[in-house]
């Protein structure tokens, strides 16, 4: 059964995680990108109580300042595919990142910071903060998320992340502290050594 079929047949999150862990990276991306908005919401609900730790996004085995790509799919009706790119800052230990997607010339890069969450809490991708300096030489220039047009997309926003499997997480956006009707899933691509 595919991930979509498992999800729609009300399987447990453990069954879905096992399925995803058994797939190759490209198959994980393909299966997650087949999910519709209602499926992403259901996946998010299934992962309640499974907070994603900071180490999920940039594993300890990855050196500081090395970018890690997460391929994403969101619940929007269009422009559903994107990437979030993360790296661990050597000085602060925080994760810094941005959104890599086709509308970036209009929306901006959507830089964010992910601080180490308190025990039992999920990592939060925080667009209210941006890195104090350009995280990686290959990344786009730093732009505030509080100016237009970036504010319309990233202003006052955080993504609260939950763990699906070893390589997959699911998130829900919140704006000004209130949950938004927007869900997405990310598939981590482990960098080559």
Topology overview:
Elements: H1 3-8, H2 13-22, H3 25-33, H4 37-46, H5 54-57, E1 68-74, E2 81-88, E3 95-100, H6 104-107, E4 112-114, E5 124-126, H7 150-154, E6 157-163, E7 168-175, E8 178-189
Antiparallel strand pairs: 1-2, 1-8, 2-3, 3-4, 5-6, 6-7, 7-8
Structure explained in plain terms:
This protein is α+β, with helices and mostly antiparallel strands and 193 residues long. It has one domain. It contains seven helices and eight strands; from the N terminus they run αααααβββαββαβββ. The chain has helices at residues 3-8, 13-22, 25-33, 37-46, 54-57, 104-107, 150-154, and strands spanning 68-74, 81-88, 95-100, 112-114, 124-126, 157-163, 168-175, 178-189. The protein has an eight-stranded antiparallel beta sheet. Strand 6 and strand 7 form a beta hairpin. The longest helix is centred in the first third of the chain and has 10 residues, at 13-22. It is globular and about 45 Å long. The model has no long low-confidence stretch (mean pLDDT 91).
